[in-house]
């Protein structure tokens, strides 16, 4: 679950990075608080043997019609960021499932697979012992930030 949440947070960072007018410390605090909120929410709703079970519960939605995702709101509040400062894409859906993180921008567009993991019930990547979620996020950013930024610069 840790690596999928780190990938989801990395995906959100990539989506807000080119647009958001936030200082880096506030951005990092927001992402840290969001990671904690998602870990708490997904605990007890994570089923590696059946990844689609609980998928709607683990879906993060940001759009004009529905209220923003409660964990995103909580992370904003705890990091003293206004929602409008994030400037995330309108109609963003992010699915965080065992083994895969996907996202979609817009209601009629296909989803992009942002990250896949071959062993969804394994909690760590092949990294040094004791790697915490912040260390995992740094490792994943180097791998996926360029990928997502390239996808959206071409669209």
Give structural notes.
Pfam families: BTG. InterPro entries: Anti_prolifrtn, BTG, BTG-like_sf. The structure is a single chain. The chain has helices at 2-16, 24-42, 70-79, 83-86, 133-153; strands spanning 59-62, 92-97, 100-105, 112-116. With 155 residues, it is of the alpha+beta class. Residues 123-137 have low confidence and may be disordered. Helix 1 (2-16) packs antiparallel against helix 2, helix 1 packs across helix 5 (133-153) and helix 2 crosses helix 3 (70-79).
Structural features:
BTG, BTG-like_sf, 4-stranded antiparallel beta sheet, 155 residues, Protein BTG3 BTG family member 3, Anti_prolifrtn
Mean pLDDT: 80
Distance between the termini: 30 Å
**Beta-strand residue percentage:** 5-15%
Give the count of helical stretches: 5
What's the overall geometry? globular
Supply Rg.
15 Å
Domain Anti-proliferative protein: 1-108
InterPro entries: Anti_prolifrtn, BTG, BTG-like_sf
Protein name: Protein BTG3 BTG family member 3
Family: Belongs to the BTG family.
Brief overview:
The chain is an alpha+beta fold.
What's the helix and strand layout?
Layout: H1 2-16, H2 24-42, E1 59-62, H3 70-79, H4 83-86, E2 92-97, E3 100-105, E4 112-116, H5 133-153
Antiparallel strand pairs: 1-2, 2-3, 3-4
Helix pairs in contact: 1-2, 1-5, 2-3
């Amino acid at each position: 679950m840790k690596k999928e949440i780190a990938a989801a947070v990395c995906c959100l960072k990539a989506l807000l990075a080119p647009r958001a007018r936030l200082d880096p410390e506030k951005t990092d605090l927001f992402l840290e608080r969001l990671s904690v909120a998602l870990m708490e929410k997904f605990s007890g709703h994570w089923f590696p043997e059946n990844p689609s079970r609980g998928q709607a519960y683990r879906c993060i939605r940001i759009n004009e019609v529905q209220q923003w995702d409660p964990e995103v709101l909580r992370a904003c509040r705890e990091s003293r960021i206004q929602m409008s400062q994030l400037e995330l894409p309108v109609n963003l859906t992010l699915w965080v499932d065992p083994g895969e993180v996907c996202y979609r921008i817009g209601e009629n567009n296909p989803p992009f697979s942002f990250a896949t993991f071959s062993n969804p019930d394994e909690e760590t990547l092949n990294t040094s012992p004791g790697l915490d979620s912040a260390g995992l996020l740094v490792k994943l950013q180097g791998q996926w930030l360029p990928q997502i930024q390239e996808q959206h610069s071409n669209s």
